[in-house]
Amino acid sequence: MTAESTGIGPDGVEQNSKGTIRVLQLYPRDMNIYGDWGNALVLRQRISWHGYTPELLEYNVGDEFPADVDLIVGGGGQDSGQLVIKDDLQSQAGVLTKLAEDGAPMLVICGLYQLFGRFFKTRLGSVIPGIGVLDVETHGTDERLIGNVRVATEEFGEVLGYENHSGQTTLGAGVRPLGTTAKGTGNNSSDGHEGARYKNVVASYLHGSLLPKNPAIADFLIRTAAERKYGTFTAGAPDDRYAVLAREHATRRPR
């Protein structure tokens, strides 16, 4: 319970809560590399700080897809992890596309960023089909893009993170980049863009985890989820002391 809660009501929600926000982590068993599970943990904490009740759910291969999901987050994985989930992900393409088109907030990182696109063609020429939520395509290469990244964005200010990928992603006309790289590479080694934005979907190659160092993105996802579900969002008072310190340290790191 939060500090001001007076107990749990019959619907299972804290009595002083503004409401429940259900966060679904996609494929944490296979797509949770470089600490991407930390993004779900940050969302859970910040939802509480904003005065809502978080409900953190998982979806893995073969599970029943939960109903009434408010916010979706998914991480990265090696090519082997993508092969494990690819068929199951295709089976959920309809529900995920419907949620995205309806404005559900989503954060997809690295491997799931690629599979939310049209396809990922591996370095050896095999094609892993995506679900087409994002108008992007990815090609595996022999070049590994690795290191600390700073991204200038209009929505979220400076975004900080760490990239490690050999797939290079090109954006189509149906999406816009998350931002422009000030340090690091981003989507590919040629155009200077990082990530993708479509409706309320945020896609990025940045691990680290991303959200502990970028609370503005976390709060966008939470606000959007609350507005979509309840019609309004009233911010709480998150404790950003550690986020500020993390950003200071990340800014000083070399490439």
Automatic annotation (TrEMBL):
<keyword id="KW-0573">Peptidoglycan synthesis</keyword>
<keyword id="KW-0436">Ligase</keyword>
<dbReference type="InterPro" id="IPR033949">
    <property type="entry name" value="CobQ_GATase1"/>
</dbReference>
<feature type="active site">
    <location>
        <position position="207"/>
    </location>
</feature>
<keyword id="KW-0378">Hydrolase</keyword>
<comment type="function">
    <text>The lipid II isoglutaminyl synthase complex catalyzes the formation of alpha-D-isoglutamine in the cell wall lipid II stem peptide. The GatD subunit catalyzes the hydrolysis of glutamine to glutamate and ammonia. The resulting ammonia molecule is channeled to the active site of MurT.</text>
</comment>
<keyword id="KW-0133">Cell shape</keyword>
<feature type="active site" description="Nucleophile">
    <location>
        <position position="110"/>
    </location>
</feature>
<keyword id="KW-0961">Cell wall biogenesis/degradation</keyword>
<keyword id="KW-0315">Glutamine amidotransferase</keyword>
<comment type="similarity">
    <text>Belongs to the CobB/CobQ family. GatD subfamily.</text>
</comment>
<dbReference type="Pfam" id="PF07685">
    <property type="entry name" value="GATase_3"/>
</dbReference>
<comment type="subunit">
    <text>Forms a heterodimer with MurT.</text>
</comment>
<dbReference type="InterPro" id="IPR011698">
    <property type="entry name" value="GATase_3"/>
</dbReference>
<feature type="binding site">
    <location>
        <position position="144"/>
    </location>
    <ligand>
        <name>substrate</name>
    </ligand>
</feature>
<feature type="domain" description="CobB/CobQ-like glutamine amidotransferase">
    <location>
        <begin position="23"/>
        <end position="214"/>
    </location>
</feature>
<dbReference type="InterPro" id="IPR029062">
    <property type="entry name" value="Class_I_gatase-like"/>
</dbReference>
<dbReference type="InterPro" id="IPR043702">
    <property type="entry name" value="Lipid_II_synth_GatD"/>
</dbReference>
<comment type="pathway">
    <text>Cell wall biogenesis; peptidoglycan biosynthesis.</text>
</comment>
<protein>
    <recommendedName>
        <fullName>Lipid II isoglutaminyl synthase (glutamine-hydrolyzing) subunit GatD</fullName>
        <ecNumber>6.3.5.13</ecNumber>
        <ecNumber>3.5.1.2</ecNumber>
    </recommendedName>
</protein>
